[in-house]
């Protein structure tokens, strides 16, 4: 088999190919269209489907955000003729952060909201694609990403008044499909919490209660927590990295269990579950000081095989000298193989790969700030 890694950066999309996860051939930045703006676009979102070879990326260019598609493992690209998503014209005005609006008069006229950035893309069955967007919204496509429909039910959820923007911006930044049930979906929101639907987005239930915070007057709110990432393991257990501890939930409506006791820090962004082994998850802790660098300035992944009850450092092959690059929320992944490869990129522009034995190999170094990493097996 061969392997393809998609690397989204602040200045374009790069790809890396390998037949052994050790030696890599880097290409990029890719110019996806004729005008060249995509070669320096911010790439916050990417999704890949090894069964079909389909790839989608969300790019923010001089002209605004759009979605590019490849059906041949990143060899060629196409973009929809028209903007793939636009908020309804009659959508009432909504402030981006309700916590800052006390005593401020807001416009009482309708105002068109603007798609600022595409934060997440995920494939469903058939031609279904989900997109998480800033400002905080979820969209669905049933034509492979050519056109998208705005999910009004999540936007109008009664708890939306507790959602804030977060430091990265107000967005649906995580989409976790259930491979056993296409009607079931979990999403996470910047400073908004975690929500699930069991009816393909017609209704939504908040499942964040029990995740504590140390940055607000209510330490255990029902909603509004700053969630950084959610991942799902092979038996359906959810793991969440919050702006604070990491958590596990076998049944989210039954509560969350703090699993940060054996990690070097409560804080972090990325979490990735093993595609076939239940209870096996990787995390990339970030120091709790405001400099947002690895604990003790030492880059390392941490791995659990028992659902977070214990963790072990996975740092073999990584730099031993002081390191200051953080792994962002979508900067890590597996390639989905039964014997998976693990990948992560940092804000220093380095990308690393490891097989399941745990020794890291450098894929590439000194790229622009890495925002997202996705990988898959290829023929």
TrEMBL record:
Record flagged with keyword Hydrolase: yes
Keywords linked to the UniProt accession: Hydrolase
Gene Ontology terms describing biological process: xyloglucan metabolic process
SUPFAM superfamilies xref list: Oligoxyloglucan reducing end-specific cellobiohydrolase (SSF110296)
Gene3D superfamilies: YVTN repeat-like/Quinoprotein amine dehydrogenase
GO molecular function, one term: hydrolase activity
InterPro entries: WD40/YVTN_repeat-like_dom_sf (IPR015943), Xyloglucanase_GH74 (IPR052025)
Protein name: Glycosyl hydrolase
Lineage: Bacteria, Bacillati, Actinomycetota, Actinomycetes, Glycomycetales
């Amino acid at each position: 088999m061969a392997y393809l890694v998609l690397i989204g950066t602040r200045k374009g999309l790069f790809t890396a190919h390998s037949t052994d996860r050790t030696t890599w051939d880097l290409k990029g930045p890719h110019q996806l269209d004729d005008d060249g703006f995509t070669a320096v676009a911010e790439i916050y979102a990417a999704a890949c489907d090894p069964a079909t070879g389909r790839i989608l990326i969300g790019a923010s260019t001089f002209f605004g955000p759009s979605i590019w598609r490849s059906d041949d493992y990143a060899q060629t690209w196409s973009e929809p003729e028209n903007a793939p998503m636009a908020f309804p014209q009659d959508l009432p005005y909504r402030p981006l952060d309700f916590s800052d609006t006390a005593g401020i008069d807001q416009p009482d006229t309708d105002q068109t909201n603007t798609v600022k950035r595409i934060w997440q893309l995920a494939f469903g069955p058939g031609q279904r694609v989900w997109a998480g967007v800033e400002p905080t919204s979820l969209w669905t496509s049933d034509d492979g990403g050519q056109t998208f429909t705005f999910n009004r039910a999540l936007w109008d959820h009664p708890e939306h008044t507790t959602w804030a923007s977060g430091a990265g911006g107000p967005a649906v930044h995580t989409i976790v499909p259930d491979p056993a049930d296409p009607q079931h979906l979990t999403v996470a929101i910047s400073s908004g919490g975690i929500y699930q639907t069991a009816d393909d987005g017609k209704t939504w239930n908040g499942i964040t209660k029990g995740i504590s915070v140390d940055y607000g007057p209510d330490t255990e709110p029902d909603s509004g927590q700053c969630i950084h990432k959610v991942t799902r393991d092979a038996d359906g257990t959810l793991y969440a990295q919050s702006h604070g501890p990491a958590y596990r939930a076998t049944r989210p409506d039954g509560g969350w269990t703090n699993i940060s006791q054996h990690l070097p820090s409560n804080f972090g962004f990325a979490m990735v579950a093993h595609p076939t082994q239940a209870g096996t998850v990787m995390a990339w802790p970030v120091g709790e000081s405001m400099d947002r660098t690895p604990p003790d300035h030492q880059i390392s992944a941490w791995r659990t095989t028992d659902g977070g009850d214990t963790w072990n450092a996975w740092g073999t092959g990584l730099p031993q000298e002081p390191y200051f690059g953080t792994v962002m929320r979508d900067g890590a992944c597996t390639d989905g193989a039964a014997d998976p490869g693990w990948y992560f990129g940092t804000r220093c522009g380095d990308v690393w790969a490891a097989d399941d034995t745990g020794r890291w190999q450098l894929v590439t170094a000194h790229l622009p700030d890495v925002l997202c990493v996705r990988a898959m097996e290829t023929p």
